[in-house]
Design goal:
Length: 238
C-alpha cells in the first residue's frame, strides 16, 4: 500500500512539474511524446523502490482450509507456516498441471517452519491441520550478506558471489533430526538446486566445506531444513 501511495503522489508531482515547465500549446507531437517518455522512465524507477510490505501476502485460518486464486509474482519467495500449537500438518499446492506438497510436519515438530516457493503463477493452496495457523509469502531481498546463522528451518535472502567461493557449514544437533542445506543459483531465468549436505544424523557438531563454482557473478540463496538445531554458513578463511 505504501508503494502505491508513493506512486500516486509521484504521478501528481510529475504532472504538476510538467505543466509548470512546459507550454503544451506550442509543442509538437514528438516533443509531447518525449515528455511522456521521460515521466514514464522516472515512474519505472520508482516502481523498483521496495517498501516494508512490498508484495507480502498473509493468510490465516483454523484447521483445514483451501485458498484459491493466489497470485504469486515475486518468486522465489519465503513461505512461513505457523501454528498456535504443534500438530500434524500439510500444506500442498496446485499450479496448472503441477501439484506437490510444499510443507509438512508432525505433532512433535516445532509449530513454525519455513520453505521456498520458486515459481510465479496462480496457485491453490490446501492446508490440513487441527490447529489455528497462518501462511505467509515473503519476497527475498537481493541485498543479503554471506554470513548466516540460525536455529531451525530457514530460507535466506539472495546473495551475489563474484567467482568460485568456499563456504564453511557448521551444524550442532542432538541426533533427533537431519540437517539438510541446499543452495539455489540463478541459471538464466530459472533457479536450480544443488545440495550442500546429505543429512547429518549423528549427535554432536559437524563442520563441512563446500566449493560453489562460478566463472563470474552468480546469484544464490540457501534453504536450511533443520527442525531442531543450530547452524551457520560462512565464507572460508582459506
Amino acid at each position: 500500500m505504501k508503494k502505491i501511495v508513493t506512486l500516486v503522489i509521484s504521478i501528481v508531482l510529475l504532472f504538476s512539474v510538467a505543466v509548470a515547465e512546459y507550454d503544451f500549446s506550442d509543442k509538437s507531437a514528438d516533443e509531447l511524446i518525449e515528455i511522456i517518455n521521460q515521466a514514464t522512465e522516472q515512474l519505472n524507477e520508482l516502481r523498483k523502490i521496495p517498501s516494508e510490505d512490498d508484495e507480502k501476502l498473509v493468510f490465516s485460518g483454523n484447521k483445514t482450509k483451501i485458498i484459491s486464486g493466489v497470485e504469486i509474482d515475486f518468486a522465489p519467495c519465503r513461505v512461513i507456516f505457523k501454528q498456535d500449537k504443534s500438530s500434524d500438518f500439510e500444506v500442498s499446492y496446485i499450479r496448472g498441471n503441477d501439484s506437490n506438497t510444499l510443507i509438512y510436519g508432525y505433532d512433535f515438530d516445532p509449530p513454525s517452519t519455513m520453505e521456498v516457493l520458486r515459481e510465479n503463477g496462480t496457485y491453490e493452496f490446501s492446508i490440513e491441520t487441527t490447529s489455528p495457523w497462518s501462511l505467509e509469502f515473503e519476497p527475498l531481498s537481493t541485498a543479503g550478506a554471506l554470513e548466516l546463522s540460525g536455529h531451525g528451518d530457514y530460507v535466506s535472502d539472495i546473495y551475489t558471489i563474484y567467482g568460485s567461493t568456499i563456504l564453511e557449514i557448521t551444524a550442532k544437533y542432538n541426533g533427533m533430526d537431519n540437517c539438510i542445506i541446499d543452495y539455489y543459483y540463478k541459471d538464466g531465468s530459472r533457479w536450480r538446486r544443488e545440495g550442500m549436505t546429505n543429512g547429518l544424523e549423528d549427535s554432536g557438531k559437524y563442520t563441512y566445506e563446500k566449493i560453489i563454482k562460478s566463472a563470474g557473478q552468480t546469484q544464490l540463496f540457501f534453504v536450511v531444513d533443520f527442525d531442531e538445531g543450530d547452524w551457520s554458513i560462512t565464507t572460508s578463511a582459506d
